Amino acid sequence: MKVTVFGTGYVGLVTGACFADVGHDVCCVDIDKDKITSLKNGEIPIYEPGLTEIVLGNIAQSRLVFTTSAEEGVAHGHVIFIAVGTPPKEDGTADLQYVLKVAQDIASHLDGQTVIVNKSTVPVGTVDLVEQTISETLAGRSRTDVIFDVCSNPEFLKEGSAIADFRKPDRIVVGHKHKRVKDVMRELYAPFNRNTDKLIFMDPRSSELTKYAANAMLATKISFINEISNIAEHVGADIEHIRQGIGSDPRIGTHFIYAGCGYGGSCFPKDVKALNQIARAHGCDTKLLAAVDNVNEYQKIRMADKVLKYFDQDVKGKKFAFWGLSFKPDTDDVREATSKVVIEKLLARGASVAAYDPHAMDEFQKHNQGLQNIEYIDDMMAVLEGADALIICTEWRHFWSPDFARIKESLNRPVIFDGRNVYNPDQMAEQGFEYYGVGRGLSVSIELELE
Ligand SMILES: NC(=O)c1ccc[n+]([C@@H]2O[C@H](COP(=O)([O-])OP(=O)(O)OC[C@H]3O[C@@H](n4cnc5c(N)ncnc54)[C@H](O)[C@@H]3O)[C@@H](O)[C@H]2O)c1
Q1: Do 2-202 and 217-436 fold alike per CATH?
Q2: What pLDDT score does 451 carry?
Q3: Which of 98, 99, 227, 384 has its CA 20 to 30 A from that of 238?
C-alpha cells in the first residue's frame, strides 16, 4: 500500500520504517529540513536500537523516501498518518497546533480517496476536529469531490524497544466511523497481525481515551510503588522485597512496579497532565491523576534532596559524577528526565557536575545550554575522578557490573545515590560504600513540603 507519514520523530520514523520493511511503499514528511537531509543521507537523528538498519535497508530498496514537501507526501499516500508532536501547554493541555497544521497541509493537496490516520496522542474529540479542519480547508478550495476518512490509531511503542513493539504489538487500536476504514486498516496492518488478531476496533473517542488511560495506568503503577518506597525508607523496609512480595500476585504483576527516581520521557508526564485537563474540561473532577503527577514530581526532587541532606545542604564547591542523562536506558530522549532536575538543583547550590551517558549527552547538552559548571565526559570511569559522590539516574546496562574497586578509588568519598536501584545494598556495604537506593539501602531521612 502507499503510505505517507507526517512527522519523523520517535513515532513517525519507526512507523514509516516498519511499514516499509513489510513491503509498503512509504513516504515520510517532516518540516525539519536538517532532519530530512540527514535521513536522505542515511543518518538517523535519534538513537533507537535496530532502527538504522531498517531505515538504510528500505532506503536502498526504494520503499522508504523522505521529503519536506507536504504536497509530495499527500500525492503519494492512500493512507496518511499524522505522527507529529503534541507537547504540553503551560496548563498541561495538549498543544494541537502541529496536528491541525498537518490536517490543513493534507487538505490543501488532497485528491481522490484517502484514509487519514491520527497516530499522535491527542485529546478526545481530535478525530472530529481534524475532520472539521480538513472539510473547511477543502471548502476553501471548492473541492466537494474528495473522499476522506479520519480515524484514530494510537501508538503504544516504547522508546528503546520501539521496533520490536511495532513489529509485535500487544494490540492495534483503531477508532473509526466507517467500515471502509476498517478494511483499509486491516490490510495495512496484516503483516503485523498474523499470529492472533491484535486489531481492536472501536469508536474514535474511545480509541483516543484508550491511549491516555494506558499511559495513566502505567504512570499510576510507578507512582504507587514510589510512594511505597518512600514509606519503606521511613520504616526501614526494603522495596525490592516488597516488589517481589506483591508482584507475585497475578492481579498485580511484576511489570512496572520498580521504585526509582521518577518517570520521565515525552509521554507519561505530559499524558497524565493532559488527561487530567481533558477530564476537567468536560466537567469531570479527577483526584487520582493529579496525585500520580505530584508523586512523580516529588520523587525527582526527593532524589536531589537526599544528596543535599547528606551534605547538610552545603554542596558549594563539591563535584558530582552522574551516570545516565536520558529518561530511561536505550534511548537518547532526555525530555522530562530526572537527571535534569537533580543536576539543576545541585548546580544552583554551587556544585559542579561531570556527566556520562552512552547516547544522550548531545541531546542533554542541546536542551540545556544554559547550564554552567557541567562537564560531559565520554568515559563512565573518568567522570568519577575527584567527585564527592556518584549519582545514577538511568540504569544503562553497562552500569550493572562496574569495577567497584576503581569506583571507590576514583571518588573522593565512597558514596552512591542510586536512583534506579541498580545495586545490592548488602554487597555495596561489604565493598565499603555508603549506598543510598530508592526504598532500600541507607536512608537519609527527609521530609519535603508538598505544594
Ligand atoms: N515518543 C514516544 O515514545 C511515543 C509513544 C507513543 C505515542 N507518542 C506520541 O506520538 C506523537 C509524536 O511523538 P514523537 O516522540 O515521535 O515526537 P517528536 O517530537 O520526536 O517528533 C515529532 C516530529 O514531527 C515533526 N513535525 C512537526 N510539525 C510537522 C508538520 N507540520 N509536518 C511534518 N512534520 C512535522 C517535527 O519536526 C518532529 O520531527 C506525540 O503525540 C506523542 O505523544 C510518542
Answers
A1: yes
A2: 45
A3: 384
Mutational test site, ligand 1, from 15, 29, 30, max ligand atoms within 8 Å of CB: 30
- pLDDT tens for 1-40 read 999 999 999 999 999 999 999 999 999 999 999 999 999 9
Kindly give the distance from the C-alpha atom of residue 153 to the centroid of ligand 1, in angstroms, as a whole number: 14
Q: Does the beta carbon of 166 lie inside 6 Å of ligand 1?
A: no
Whether the CB of 121 sits within 6 Å of ligand 1: yes
Residues near 321 by Cβ (< 8 Å), separated by ≥ 6?
353, 354, 355, 356, 383, 384, 387, 389, 390, 391, 411
Residue 151 is predicted with a pLDDT of 98
348 C-alpha to ligand 1 centroid (Å): 32
For ligand 1, atom 25, which residue shows the shortest CA distance?
A: 7
Catalytic residues, by residue number, are: 267
Sheet hosting strand 434-436, strand order edge to edge = 374-376, 352-356, 319-323, 389-392, 415-418, 434-436
- Cβ within 8 Å of residue 416, ≥6 positions away: 389, 390, 391, 392, 407, 423, 428, 433, 434, 435, 436
CATH superfamily of 217-436: NAD(P)-binding Rossmann-like Domain (3.40.50.720)
In this structure, which residue's CA is closest to atom 7 in ligand 1?
155
- Which ligand 1 atom is at minimum distance from the Cα of 158? 3
Query: What residue's CA is closest to ligand 1, atom 21?
Result: 9
Query: Please, what CATH class does the domain formed by 2-202 belong to?
Result: alpha beta
Is the separation of the CB atoms in 30 and 8 below 8 Å?
yes
What are the boundaries of each domain within the chain? Answer: 2-202, 217-436
Instruction: Please give the number of the atom of ligand 1 that sits closest to the Cα of 105.
Output: 31
Mean pLDDT of the chain: 96
Q: Quick one: pLDDT at residue 445?
A: 63
pLDDT tens for residues 306-348?
Answer: 999 999 999 999 999 999 999 999 999 999 999 999 999 999 9
